[in-house]
Amino acid sequence: MHKIDDRIRAIILVVLILVAMALCGIRLMRLQIVQGEEYLALSKTGTYGKQTIDAARGEIVDINGIEIVKNKVGFNVIIEKAFFPSDLQAGNEIILRLVKILEADGLSWEESIPISTTAPYTYHEGSERAIKIMLDEEHLRLNSYATADDCINALIEKYEISDSYTEREKRIIAGIRYEMLLRAFSVSNRYTFAKDIPISTVSDIKELSYMLDGVDIAEEAIREYAQSDILSHSIGTVGPIYAEEYAELKNKGYSLNDELGKSGIEKYMESYLRGQDGVRTTNISGGVVTSVTDTVEAVPGNTVMLTVDSEFQRDVQQILADHIAWLNEYSTEDRGKNCYAGAIVVLDAKTGAVRAMTSYPTYDIYDYINDYSEVASRENSPLINRATDGLYRPGSTFKTITATAALNEGIITPNDTVTCGGVYRFYSDIAPGCTGVHGAIPVDYALKVSCNIFFYDVGRRLGIDAIDSYAAKFGLGEDLGFETGGSKGWVSSPDVVEGFGQDWTPGLVLQTAIGQSETAVTPLQLAVQAMTLANDGVRYKPYIIDSVYDYNCTTLIEKTEPQIVSTIDTNYDYVFEEVESGMIQAAEYGMGVFNYYYDDYLLMTLPEDAAIKTGTPQKTKEITSSAAICYYPADDPELAISCFLEEGEYSKYMLRQIIDAYYGYGIYAPDYVPPVLDENGNEVTTGESVVPEETTQMID
Questions:
Q1: Which region, left, alpha or beta, applies to residue 381 given φ > 0 means left and ψ of -120 to 50 means alpha?
Q2: Rounded Cα–Cα distance for residues 65 and 48 (Å)
Q3: Residue range 108-121: average pLDDT?
Q4: Around 9, how many Cα atoms within 13 Å sit in the side-chain half-sphere?
Q5: Does the pLDDT of residue 151 top 70, yes or no?
Q6: How far, rounded to the nearest angstrom, does the alpha carbon of residue 98 sit from its chain's CA centroid?
Q7: Structural domain boundaries in the chain
Q8: CA 43, CA 285: separation in Å to the nearest integer?
Q9: Computed from CA positions of residues 307, 309, 310, 314, in that sequence, does the dihedral angle turn out positive or negative?
Q10: What's the rounded Cα separation, in Å, for the pair 478 and 424?
Q11: Residue 175 has pLDDT above 80, yes or no
C-alpha cells in the first residue's frame, strides 16, 4: 500500500514538473519570437530615470535695470538620510565634524532656532511665531511657558547629545538637530547643511568623506545679492520649506527641497520670481547611458523691477546714518545726542512710487543669512523696519491736517486769527502752553511758527470726529496696502484712549490737534501725508514694485499703475493754497544756528520753493523725537519726503541733502561730511557741542 502511494506521488510530481517546464517554454517563445523585436528595442532605449532640473529664480532690479538680487551656481553641503547614521550619537559626531570644517574656513551653517547661541539661553526678540512652532506637537512638544533653556535641554535629551561635549558644542548640535526636525529631514527629503561654500571647503569635505557618512556636495543655484547693503528690510530673503508649510505648498507644485520667499519682496512676489522646474530623462542600452534629454525645459522666474533708484537709495541711507552719527558726536543731551534710530521715506508725489526708503540701524543681507542670531542681538533692533513698522507720534507735522480740516470745514478763513498769549486758557482745569508768544496770527503764519495755541483753538472747534476723519483721508491710522506690509497705527480718539485704559477728556482733543495724545503713525504714512498735501488732497497708494518682465527683460508682463485711494473734496479754493503758503514759510524760518553757517542745509537757497512742516513729538515729558515732512518743488511737486529721528533733533536738515542727492544739484555727495562749527563760525575739531546754548527760537 505504501509503495503504491509513493508511485502516485512520484507521478504527480513528474507531471507538475513537466507542466511547469511547458509554461516556461511557452513564455520564452513569446518573449523571443512573438515579442522579440519589442523587447529588443526596449533593451536598447530603456528608461533609466528622471531628474528634476531646478529653474532659476527671477532677479530683482532697480528702476534702471541695475541688479540688486541675482543668481549664481554654487556648492551646497547636503546630508542624505539613507546614508546618515541612524545611531543618534554617531550622527552627532558627524554634525560636529562638519561644523569644525566650516568654522576652520570662517563659514556658517543653516540654523533658524529662535534661541541665543550662548547660555543663559534666551528667545530672540520678535520671534513669537517661530517659538510657537518650536514648542508645538510636531516639534518639541513643550508647554507654551517653556523657557529657552527648556528647549535646549529637550533637544539634548531627544537627540542623546553627550555631556562630554562642551556647552557650546551641545548648543550647536541642538540647533542643527532642530533645523533637521523643522525641515522634515527624511529619506525622501535631504537636508541642506550649508550653502555656497568655497571650492577649498569642498575639497576639505571630500578628503574626509570616509568620516562623514551621508554627507555630500551638490551644485545648485544660489541667491546672490549684488547690492546686499541697500533695501535690506524691503528685499527680504528666501529660505527652505518647513514641514508645517509643505502641506499647503505641495499642491502648488513645490517639493520639500525647494526654497521660497520668506519675507519682503521675495515673499510678496513669490509667484512671479519662482520658475518652473524641468525634467531630464536618461536612457540606456545594455547598461550604458546612450542619451540625456531635457524632456521638459526649465522656465526661469520673472524679473521684478522696483521703483527705487539704487544709487539714490544708497545716498539716502548714508544721509540718515551720517546725521545720526553727527548728532551722537557733536550735539547736546537736549538736542538729540542720544539719537539711536530713524527712518526716511521718499515718494514720487505724482504716483506714490517709492524712490527711496531706509530704516536705521540697518544690516547687510549677507550678515542676516550667515549669522541671523548675531544680527538679531545687535543694539537698537536693526531687524525692525522703522519706515513701515515703526509707530511714532507725528508731533506738529499733524498741524497741516488740522489746518486743512479747519479751512475746509469753514471753522476759519485765511484772514481769521487766533491770539497766542503763550498759554491756552479756554478750560479752567488745564492750561497747555506754546513755544512762544505770537499774538494774533492767521493760519499760514501759525504753520510757519508752529503755534500750539492756534491749533488748540481750531482743534477744539473742529472736534475729535472731524480731526480723525481728515487724518484718515491723509492715510494716518489706515492700512496703506503697501506690498511688503506695514503697521496700520491709529489716531487718537475716545475709543483708542479708552482702549489704553484711560479716560477721554476735552484736553485730549487739543493734544490730538497738534499730533500728540495717543496718535501713532509710521514714517511711510507721514510720506503719504506729504504726498496728499502736494496733490491738493488726492492720496495715491504707495508702491515699490514698478513692473514685472520675463527673465531676460525683453517682454513686459505686468506694470503697476498709480492708484488713487481717496480724494478730499474742497469746499473753498484757498484750502490747500493756505496750507502750502504756511509750509513754504516754514522752510525759510526757524533754522536756528544753521541760518548763519550751514548753507548746505538751507532750503531757501534751492532753485525752487520747498514746502515743509516739522515736529518735535514728545516720547516722555523729558524726551522728544524729531519729525519732518516735505514736498518739492512746491509749485509742481515731484518728491514727497518724511524723516523721523528717535530721540533725535534737526530732522529737517536732512531734507536739503535728500533733494540735492535726487536732483544732482552738486552739494550732496556720498562722502560728504558736514562742517562742524561753533557759535563763532570756527571749525570744531574736538567733541564739544556745535550748538550754542542760546540761539534763535526753536520751532518744532
A1: left
A2: 43
A3: 92
A4: 6
A5: yes
A6: 32
A7: 78-223, 310-663
A8: 6
A9: negative
A10: 31
A11: yes
The predicted-structure confidence for 294-315, as pLDDT tens digits, reads as follows: 678 888 899 999 999 999 999 9
Q: Residue 144: how many CA atoms within 13 Å on its side-chain side?
A: 3
Cα 539 to Cα 90, 184, 349, 534, distances in angstroms: 63, 47, 9, 9
| Top-confidence residue, 682 or 164 | 164
C-alpha grid cell, residue 350: 505724482
Distance of alpha carbon 58 from alpha carbon 302, whole angstroms:
5
Q: For residues 600 and 15, what is the distance between their CA atoms, to the nearest angstrom?
A: 111
Give CB contacts under 8 A, 24+ apart, made by 605-610: 606/632, 606/656, 606/659, 606/665, 607/633, 607/665, 608/632, 608/633, 608/634, 608/635, 609/584, 609/633, 609/634, 609/635, 610/584, 610/634, 610/655, 610/659
pTM, 2 dp? 0.78
Residues 6+ apart with CB under 8 A from 268: 236, 261, 483, 484, 545
Superfamily of domain covering 310-663: DD-peptidase/beta-lactamase superfamily (3.40.710.10)
Report CA 273 to chain centroid distance, whole Å. Answer: 17
Sign of CA dihedral 509, 523, 577, 465: negative
**Residue 556 DSSP code:** E
Residue 333, pLDDT above cutoff 50: yes
How do residues 599-622 score in pLDDT, each as one tens digit?
A: 567 888 899 999 999 999 988 878
What percent of the chain has pLDDT above 70?
84
Could you give phi then psi for residue 27, rounded to 5 degrees? -65, -40
pLDDT number for residue 494: 97
